[in-house]
Amino acid sequence: MNTVSVYIHIPFCKKKCNYCDFVSFADKEELIDGYVEALKHEITSIPQQLKIKTIFFGGGTPSLLAPKQLEKILSHFESRITYPEISIECNPGTVNLQKLKDFHKLGINRLSIGAQSFNDRELKTLGRIHTAKEIHETVENARKAGFKNVGLDLIFALPNQTLESWKETVRKAVELEPEHLSTYNLQIEEGTPFWKMTNDKPCLTAGRFQMSNNNFQLPDEETEACMYEFAIDYLKAKGYKHYEISNFSKPGYECKHNIVYWKNGDYIGIGVNAASHINNSRHENPNNFEEYFLMANQQSKGLAGKLASRPARDEISETIMMNLRLLDGLSKKEFKERFGKDIEELYKKEIDELEKDNLIENTKTHLKLSRKGLFLANLIFEKFVD
């Protein structure tokens, strides 16, 4: 392993969204300067011989940081960066033209804009701080600032969302000509405001929560499937490649950083609750500031000392599940080179059953989800978990 991707978690937000269960905190901006210093300390634990091929600032809302704060972080990578893909998640309402120009000057060359919807009512329901108009302004400013790789994140199956309103969101997103689009179906996670709007004893019907409040009705399973179908067909017709279950891009603009995850490759997580995966070993940082600051400032405890090895079977199962998220699927040759085993011998029964049910395609070189399998991916993945 000579190269590695780096994820940097920025856990600060203006406001916590109603659906968000990520480790992030609102009204803690007074901690940002101290947090940046802690990030710099943790970065020094990355072995010097490793070259950085991608960097991704995620959150939270990384675009809350001032350019000078981002510069302090990126300066610790300068000797190892050969102009990789450097992405930052950006929320409309937290940036202006000058800030985006400053980000671009720092070498950040990819924006992932959290649009979520182009319907102001839906944005309000989600608890977002921006409007549809501000999404347009952010994309326009990004182009003026010099960004040639802009992505938009969208969420479907929202409370009270109709198929037609989702179609309108997708159309409006495409009109802005982003290089990348992500379309995620809403998941109701425990502890979020949306969770609290469900019944006292939440029940699942066909895999979807039924909300107790009549003002918050989730689309049924059939409508949700139609929303996903529309996104696939419409985006393909507009020249976007469907390269991962939830992700589409113009040719050559696939997210290189996220492909490392889907290939179950090597990456290092920096920051609160960030996870690392190196040589089949894993580590997860503390999920609160106090413990994280203590860990980050103890430079003697480098990354190697924190990693914990995992059972080979867990690594195999995870690699299969992550690779199958990609539309190209899992390479049988790469799997054998990595694990010294033939996947069709390890999981012959499971593969035969899935192929019989038309849920996967089993070619000479790859295993991949069928069109039908895209809608039942989680059930398919369970087949490879012991």
From TrEMBL:
Q: Give the family per the record.
A: Belongs to the anaerobic coproporphyrinogen-III oxidase family. HemW subfamily.
Q: Which NCBIfam families match?
A: hemN_rel
Offer an example of a GO molecular function term for this protein: metal ion binding
Q: Which CDD domains match?
A: Radical_SAM
Query: Main site of residence?
Result: cytoplasm
Protein name, entry field: Heme chaperone HemW
Q: What role does it play?
A: Probably acts as a heme chaperone, transferring heme to an unknown acceptor. Binds one molecule of heme per monomer, possibly covalently. Binds 1 [4Fe-4S] cluster. The cluster is coordinated with 3 cysteines and an exchangeable S-adenosyl-L-methionine.
Highest rank taxon of the organism: Bacteria
**UniProt subcellular location:** Cytoplasm
